[in-house]
Amino acid sequence: MSDQAILALGHSHLAALRGGWKLLKAEGRPLPEVRFVFLNKPRFQPNFAGPGARRALSSRLTGALEALLAERRWKALLLAPLGNECLARFLVADDPPLALHDPSIPAPAGAVPVCIETLRCWLREIAARNAGLFLSALRERTDLPLFLLPPPPPIASERTIREGKGPLHAALATARLNPPKLRLAIWELYREVLAELARETMTTLLPPPAATRDRAGFLHPSCTRGDPTHANARYGACLWSEILRHLSGGHPEPASPPRMELST
Amino acid sequence: MIHPYRDLPDHCYWARSVAHMPPDEVDPMLEAPFRLTRRTPVLTAGSCFADRITKELDARGYNLVMTERGHPLLPRHIARAHGYGRHAARYGNIYTARQLRQLLERAMGLFEPVEPPWRLRNGNWADPFRPTVQPGGFVSRHELLADRARHLACVRTAFGTARVFIFTLGLTEAWHSLEDGAVFPVAPGVAAGELDKTRHGFVDFSVEEIAADLARFLSLARKINPELKVILTVSPVPLAATARPDRHVLAATTLSKAKLRLAAEISCREQPGVAYFPAYEIVTGPHGRGRHFTGGLRDASPTAIKRVMASFFRHFAQETDAPPPQTQETPPHTARPGDRRRARLFAAACDEVLNDETECSGGKSSHVH
Predict the structure, then answer these.
(1) B339 to chain A, closest Cα gap in Å
(2) Coil, strand or helix: which one is A148?
């Protein structure tokens, strides 16, 4: 393993990656040095300047990113950007409910269908702000290998979601949730949109390894963190297996789960 | 000396009502046979020019019928880019009277065209009867057909709800299916699909055909809604292109507009509850002195639109107009870099402009007429 370190940047979903790194380290796995930088910390605020469609990264943030990049010679960059918004927005059913023209996802009464490409267009706007701005800013400043981590897949179990802690807890206690398959379909679409962004910025998108998902594609129950949208350290550990495989020049394969006990 | 022109009103004389009038006061509309209030449910359709009328009505607080709405979660500019909120339902631009008649026949279950969905370059599907209404297309035939079924139900509801229908006649030239005569808003291959000369053909409707299509449409519409009144206009926007190589586009434009104007006149004369509003004359009359079209000589200028709408509200509005509320400019849709064709489709409020590649790639034209 090279002595060069990895710079991992991101927001709330970065916590799973940091937790995973600690777990693997505790198991004695050989790991590169990683600097975890949470961009929601005061040092990087505000992240954005300008409203709506003209939103851009603030000069404070870009200045801080430049300082980080110049700090030392990095081996690679990881970005786990904003994206929870997408999971949270579609958690609770709206009035009228949103639906897709998909016979495998029954639409509740009164639902207003949205075509996939319309939804994709909207998700592109969300992704362009939440991930695209960061990717572009980094790519403009470095040729280092850059990895993009999408938010984790949605949780299937309504019970897990309702019992989960976090800022959405009270709102979720009585709210009607969107059907799990609808949430999964929207997450898959968001991931496709992130893949487009990744291609445009010469970035490697790292989808969640198979071990982190159940048979239907939802976040595996062993990978939930105890809130409705975030994944845990086990999830992060599986991602590390994938990241390290990439860095060693290997092709992405389903990662074996870490050996440690399940952690939530 | 008595002669037949001696005692006519001023509007019968060119010098008194056009040549020597301030352009703002040239108003060829005389008396509307009926009027609208802000409570009157109004339905709009037609070529790109209908879009401008719809926006003005909306800005002034008129009761536009909207039966096919996008999900309220969708940002407004995305909903509009996908055809929601432009007209009552996501039918896109309706250029010909045949297309209008066909839409209602389909909505009433009287006609089901045989034309299969068209392929887009990205592998998705386009609805041949509204090929640009869904940028990026439909991801499956199932999605297309399900959305179409909902759309046609919304069209039927719209015609059942409206009290006044404003229709802007745009074109006489169209492409149609040789199998069942179904017309398309744009030629196969322009926005999607491929032209197959064994199945697709060109048609240039005659005055009689246009008038017959309007009559058929009206008889169907009044089966759903006997009280429906209709305001016909002719789009002043010239053809972007003619499909007839034996005809100059300017000559094709004047022929097309003449036929539409005549068909509108026949409808007004023969059908009760149909009025003609001379938007075409206001925009194209020589009193505009070259100020009624913008750079590409197709888009009606803001001055022209202002004069059209002033006349419209003067004659058709029952209430005193309040000043239009401030409208918020919606942010432009951000198309993906490198996807020029898709960006063009997003920008094209006017499908017909797609007939001219040069104009499409010009980039600066607003395509809003």
Answers:
(1) 12
(2) strand
